[in-house]
Design goal:
2 copies of one chain form a homodimer. The first copy, chain A, has 701 residues and is of the alpha+beta class. Helix content of chain A is 34%, strand content 21%. In chain A, the strands form 8 sheets. A 10-stranded antiparallel sheet of chain A has the order 1-2-10-11-12-13-19-17-16-15. Chains A and B meet through helix 8, strand 21 and helix 13 of A and helix 8, strand 21 and helix 14 of B.
């Protein structure tokens, strides 16, 4: 399905059934507190789980220890009748759907015609308010085109919703739905319901403004506004009374006033996050769509929730948070909305006690962050190879704390939160490495790197280097926090130093090549082009197990490390890694294209940079990997697209020494303008071909 | 709970609730066609799954591709009323339960007393007929001890049974039951029911002989016999009519006649399988219990079923068949009942097409046998580390075919079945090794050996050597089958030779030590005694993941290989392996003690041999690993106990050259007498201290 991508809008005129799931992903709306797939309120549901809506951080147990992000009651649920006939069942024409990225409104319209030739025009406008996050608003405009008749708009809340928990195994499609909710308490204008296992409640209220039934003449329009308020057990106070009050207040305000304050809130968000490119309008629109989706998906005001792998757009991976947040998305927030970045890190800080308990469950010390986390820090991934072995997440989180402090200079946060995270995670690593007395080295055994092919391996470079960096952060933190902090002993610090310096790293000085791990070179070399001729993951055609023994990468691994530490590797090392690994990379993860775009931009490999950037930037909009419809929006790809653009093409880098910009603009971007925060100060950056980058600090926000 | 172990009987007087599950495992009855845990027919059930009964090979899908062994209708279900009071609810005394191993009958009696002091004595005798495998018989004898009153015996079939599918993960206790059956069709004296998903039917009929209600005087006994017949969709013909006919016939026969023919059938089985030891009676009884349980558990007459890891005694591992059958149990059948051994191998032959399809699903060629198999050959293990990496099972099966042919000399079986298995499995291995051009070697990457600790590793010796043997079997088979067989090309054969000779094996000639794999030496050395002070698996106290990085073994690995190829390793190599690996072995698998007993016996390490043998021989009887109650009978331990005794202490070995016996009798066995089949001929073997072993061939059976 082709979307029209405008600088501030995503549009389609395709309302067909075949593209319904894709549309519902692309036109997903969210305000960080809640999210709703882009389904049509007035359509009949085909099952109880696909009209999905979520609240950030709202999970429930589906079995002991394992949660799913809970599909919330459908507050949009509406039936439109024209002359007693359900409009959703009628043939439609003139379908149009428009997502306005400037204010987050979704507009949808069409003309329905019944068997007697009576035409009715329907337009639905909706938004989840960015100004008051508990409020959503819907406007139904129904016009009698060529007839005089009765229009009825029945609206309410559908509580008959279920979950479709999705297996860890990407190849197992689940077919068993699960009802997590108990019976709702319903009253006029609202309901309250609780999950069965943990009694986690949600209150949803709606207020209707306008007549539910109207007799229209030719050309007349009936308008009905529905204002919704939602509170849950995660909000402080009684969700029932808060929802009632919020709904009443919002209804008094009315749709137009709510819309105006929502637009104002979006303006403020765009003010710091927008990227203006002097390029073709589809590219401008797609870049904005990445930014827009990142803005939508972050629980901005909530230090106890993070972002799932598909944000609030889909329940894939049971809504869990991965390294995607810290390594792929966090830089965007860090530079455009540091308060949100801080909250995302606080989620990790607040689950640190779980991470400590987690390490203990793994018979280790310190804090072990989970590969998949939900409302607690406990491991949600149930397989040994991934759940127990893809351990770099712990160092990724420490790295993200480090970057936050470097870029913001937030010393309070360092002393109150980061230092503790560094030390507890360093303790984890100290217990996770295995000492090899024969060679006086430390091995990292049975790990899985970002390249999730290559089985379970040893001494994965990315993991080893990230862990060593984590240990260094802890060592430096102890220098600043002073003796006695968290009862760290000198012996512990010495051990951290020892491991950081003696961890096994395989590097060939002759060729400047860093080896991915101990095993990669033993795998069977193949020519990926002989096996893969499109962008869909190869594991759909070659068994996941077989792929492990081909010398191919699922996604950037050594190159990803270099992207995180651009100053720690020479150009020759980056070039050697690129030449060795890029041709072997299958990009079977949505995390891959953007990472390669970033490195290609850095290395000045123009064709590759363009190719990878477009794939990442249009990943969902063009359904590049053919998985947007049934998986939702790939949030990590949004973030790495931003990084490729800002760190790669714009060449931005911020560290203790300041903010630098060494642009590598491609031909197809004539200029760029964007803002970032550095050390708490907003800066505006302008880049043009043939000119030095301009960094204006101290601008007003 | 202490059992009294007599030469031919297992007894207990403990009828307490605490030991109920243990009793039900130990006193499990089976005749190969059906199995029933040792529960009391007249007790009330506490749930729908723990009074478990199974039919060999009867599985049903619990989700796409994954089956569970189906808990069958409870044909024992009975209520005993004395003066209208349910006896099961009354306090009991004089409890006694006796398993007669000579004829497989289970006897149970006690005296129940009501609040008015009225005592009723109950005795229940039951057996699953070894003479007619579809028939079970129960005799209820109820005696009014000190009162005159009414005795009522209500009996029938309970169709309200459910499954409790158990996760692959040994640490996840499942709590969700699953009803696999549709509504039963019930008629007087029987029922027919089908599973929901695959419409797999079972018909169960019962006939009652005696009065259901009787008025007794002091000291009088009411007797009621219940004769049951069961047929299923797996039997040829209509299960309903066959069950009716079988029940009618058996009822005409009557309990005593059925018992007599059952005893005769058991006599015949014992005649070839019994081991008489001149030793203390508990040891004699325990050895018989191992043999008895092996006889009970094998689907003797069925070439389409094999033995699950817990036989028919428990649904653990979803009733799946592992390498346990071929490597641990098969030798017993091979030497005592070759027809049964042949059927077990035919099960593998009959699932070879699935194994071929399986290999293709793994993007490989040839036939890949599954780590866990049920009624099909498709993989039932859902994890990557075990289900995809513990691949030695394929070579284990080829090895078992090879041993069968060596010991029986069954050339028809070789030509009609084994040769094909050798070639298809060799093709699998040819596609599973990875060529390392730099060193001109073949690596076996990402495998898990019998030692299921040590993560996912490379070049596990056991797996490499077994695979090489598998390739050799195929090469030899081609020499005999001639060109053109199964379209094997010379190129293929050359590749098999090449891999067999260039597969990576790590051996240190100086120390005569074979290395377990590429990684074991890098693991952290610990002293197991510091961590483990009983026989229960350490993974209950140290996380499974952490254990992978300790230099410890779960069970015999290199030593297991040596046990399978006793002639291929020198004493020095065996001794070196023992000295290196045995002290590091945790025996966290029930497969371990017996394997170590066998090797210790071979090496003449008397103390260790005794210790390990007793643990293996009494594994379930003494609940050595504290898991018999909730897991059932460990069938592999039964088999390896037999091997330790016969191959280890009796020193039996059979190959192309003949039957040899080089006894290493310990002090605590003064003599032994047993029979084996060799090349189709029965032989009797007598061993005594200080005497040459006597092998008498051509004896009558």
């Amino acid at each position: 399905m082709e979307l029209k991508i405008k600088p501030w809008r995503i549009e389609t005129t395709d309302g067909s059934l075949e593209t319904k799931d894709f549309r519902e992903s692309i036109f997903c709306q969210a305000n960080g507190y809640m999210g709703m797939r882009g389904y049509a309120p007035e359509d009949r549901k085909v099952n109880n789980y696909s009209r999905a809506a979520f609240l950030a951080g709202f999970y429930e147990y589906i079995r002991p220890g394992i949660t799913d992000m809970v599909n919330q009651p459908d507050v949009s649920s509406t039936t439109l009748l024209a002359n007693g006939i359900d409009i959703s069942a009628l043939p439609k024409e003139g379908f149009k759907q428009v997502l306005n990225m400037r204010d987050g409104t979704l507009y949808r319209c069409y003309t329905a015609e019944d068997t007697q030739g009576r035409k009715t025009h329907v337009a639905v406008t909706r938004f989840l308010s960015m100004a008051r996050r508990h409020v959503a608003a819907f406007r139904f405009e129904v016009t009698s085109v060529n007839h005089a008749g009765t229009i009825t708009i029945e609206t309410g809340i559908d509580s008959a919703v279920e979950n479709l928990p999705i297996s860890d195994n990407q190849l197992n499609e689940n077919t068993e739905t699960s009802r997590l909710w108990g019976e709702p308490e319903v009253h006029t204008g609202g309901l309250y319901m609780e999950t069965v296992v943990s009694k986690r409640g949600v209150a949803a209220e709606y207020r209707v403004i306008g007549n539910k039934s109207a007799v229209l003449n030719h050309g007349e329009t009936a308008v009905l506004d529905k204002i919704v308020a939602i509170y849950s057990f995660r909000d402080e106070g009684d969700p029932r009374s808060m929802a009632i009050q919020a709904a009443d207040t919002a209804a008094t305000f009315g749709f137009d006033a709510l819309l105006a304050e929502n637009a104002e809130a979006w303006d403020a968000l765009w003010n710091t996050a927008d990227i203006e490119v002097d390029a073709d309008e589809a590219l401008q629109g797609a870049i904005r769509y990445n930014v827009f989706s990142l803005i939508q998906t972050a629980p901005h005001n909530d230090p106890h929730a993070s972002i799932g792998a598909r944000g609030l757009s889909h329940g894939r991976y049971k809504g869990c948070t991965f390294w995607d947040t810290e390594i792929f998305m966090l830089p965007f927030y860090l530079f455009t909305n540091p308060a949100t970045a801080k909250n995302l890190l606080l989620y990790r800080y607040h689950t640190m006690q779980d991470a400590i308990e987690s390490a203990s469950r793994f018979s280790l010390t310190g804090a072990r962050y989970s590969w998949m986390a939900s409302d607690t820090g406990f491991e949600q991934c149930e397989t040994w190879d991934t759940g127990c072995c893809e351990i770099h997440i712990t160092a990724d989180i420490a790295y993200a704390f480090g970057r936050y402090i470097e870029v913001t200079g937030d010393e309070d946060f360092f002393a109150q939160h980061a230092a503790e995270v560094y030390i507890q995670t360093a303790r984890y690593w100290a217990s996770r490495f295995t000492y090899d007395a024969a060679d006086d080295r430390y091995n990292l055994l049975f790990v899985k790197g970002p390249d999730e092919y290559c089985g379970v391996t040893n001494n994965n470079l990315y993991t080893v280097k990230m862990a060593a960096h984590n240990l260094q952060l802890a060592i430096s933190a102890m220098e600043r926090m002073g003796q006695g902090f968290l009862n760290v002993t000198d012996e512990e610090i010495n051990r951290w130093r020892e491991i950081a310096s003696k961890a096994v790293v395989r590097y060939d000085a002759d060729t400047c090549l860093y080896h991915q791990d101990d095993v990669f070179h033993l795998l069977e070399p193949i020519n990926p082009a002989d096996y893969k001729d499109d962008n869909t993951p190869l594991y759909h055609r070659i068994s996941f197990d077989r792929l492990q023994r081909y010398q191919v990468l699922k996604q950037a691994d050594v190159l990803m490390l270099m992207a995180l530490f651009p100053k720690n590797f020479t150009d020759a090392q980056k070039q050697a890694a690129w030449s060795h690994y890029e041709p072997k990379t299958l990009h079977d993860s949505t995390l891959s294209f953007g990472a390669h775009a970033l490195m290609a931009a850095t290395l000045g490999i123009a064709g590759k940079a363009e190719d990878y950037f477009y794939k990442s930037c249009f990943l969902d909009l063009k359904n590049v990997m053919a998985n947007t419809a049934h998986e939702g929006i790939h949030t990590a790809a949004l973030g790495i697209t931003w990084q490729a653009l800002i760190f790669g093409f714009a060449g931005l880098w911020a560290d203790g020494d300041g903010l630098h910009c060494d642009p590598k603009l491609p031909q197809w971007i004539r200029g760029m303008r964007f803002r970032v925060f550095h050390k708490g100060r907003p800066c505006q950056i302008r880049i043009k071909h043939g000119e030095e980058a301009q960094i204006n600090q101290h601008i007003g926000t």
